[in-house]
Specification:
Layout lengths: L2 E5 L4 E6 L2 H14 L4 E6 L3 E6 L6 H14 L15 E6 L5 H8 L3 H10 L2 E6 L6 E4 L14 E4 L3 E5 L2 E4 L4 E3 L2 E5 L20 E7 L2
Parallel strand pairs: 5-13
Antiparallel strand pairs: 1-2, 2-4, 3-4, 6-7, 6-13, 8-11, 9-10, 9-12
Length: about 210
Amino acid sequence: MTARVLPSGRAALLVECDALADVLALLDVLAASAPPGVVELVPAARTLLVSLDPARLPLESAASWVRAAAAEAPTAAAPAPAGLADAVVVDVDYRGVDLAATADLLGVSAEHLVARHTATAWRVAFIGFAPGFGYLVAEDWPFDVPRLDVARTRVPSGAVGLAGGFSGAYPRESPGGWRLVGRTEAALWDPAADPPALLAPGRAVRFRAVGS
């Protein structure tokens, strides 16, 4: 795996990878081998931020650890999560405004699209766009879903959408260009909770159909 390790201030390293699959593979290795002094691992689409306490883990030592982990991590690892028994289950009413049109676009029935969405073993790859908005990926998800040509100015809180190879749910009302296939009542972001985000990076997720 190619990983470029760059300093990011005095207490963090930014690791640049070639692909999201590499980020996830490196995240797994780092999480399993984190030495004392590692504060947080924050994945993104092509980068991984390693936040640390330099009094306990100097930047040079942390960089050596990250490079060794990158050499160990498999290239283009599958994003399937471990520990599906501990997966977050998100109940979804699959009557999204774009469900039928998205199914037509993909050449399947709406029932088939819902069945694949609920049968898929999802993993939170990273958080972005808004607090609590998890970008979910899966090895067994077969669809690449185009975004809307024109983004909506208002997407309701809890809307469950698809875009590219990702699935996700809007934690609050906001603009958005994902195709909406359903809606959940789950509390995706609660600043008073610990942790505030229901869907943390690396977490396994299952969607479950509810309603009529």
